[in-house]
What does this fold into?
Amino acid sequence: MKEKHLEFTQGVINRMGQNSFLIKGWTVTLVSALFALAAKDANQKFVIVAYFPTIAFWLLDSYYLYQERLFRKVYDHVRKANSVDFSLNTKQFDKGFFDWAGAALSKTLILFYGIVFITLIIVMYYLK
It folds into this structure.
């Protein structure tokens, strides 16, 4: 029974990781499309517009990473527990805003979205 609960939890963790991967793909796709529009007309407004989805995707990506971390804690808890209730409730592991902010400011997200923001700044400067 414990193995089945761990499989359920691992499935949720895998979905969170897949969602995070898809968000990064959408970020690159959308920003690239806006760059193409900006380059076509030499219009800096398209680059400015690219900041908004980048921030939105960063926040959403950090939410998925935060949820993934919570479910990893659930997995670890179930792994160590003697009895299984098949609960996937993460409330006992949730420390609120600071855990989410820690996910948003993780090295991997800062690196990925930092590069996107630096690229946006460079393109804006180039289009001036």
About this structure: The two ends are 63 Å apart (CA to CA).
